[in-house]
Amino acid sequence: MICGKLTIEQKDIISGRTYVGEVYFNPVQNIDDDWVIFSKEMECDYPEFSFVKSLPLIEFIPKPPPPEEIPQ
Fold it and tell me: What's the structural domain count of the chain?
């Protein structure tokens, strides 16, 4: 899946902000600890977030789930 790579500053700007109606940006970290948003979020038409349309595109590889803790 292709996504847009954010800087930490860009992530801080959009986190918790809406990009259409009541739909919020949801930056996540990939396996390399890069902050990313998915292509649907990059379709935002709000002028203050226009930078998301030109983010560098990268392949999203999720982080593996944490290992299960075995009760002792």
Answer: 1
Give the model confidence (pLDDT) of 30-53 as tens digits: 999 999 999 999 998 899 999 999
* Tokens 């996540």 found at: 28
Widest pairwise Cα distance in the chain: 54
Residue 33 lies in a domain: yes
Residue 52: CB atoms within 10 A of its CB come to 19
Query: Following CA atoms 4, 31, 34, 66 in sequence, which dihedral angle do they give, to the nearest 10 degrees?
Result: 120
Token pair 């809406």: residue: 18
Q: What percent of the chain is predicted at pLDDT more than 90?
A: 78
Model pTM? 0.85
65 in a structural domain: no
Euclidean distance between CA atoms 10 and 53, whole angstroms: 12
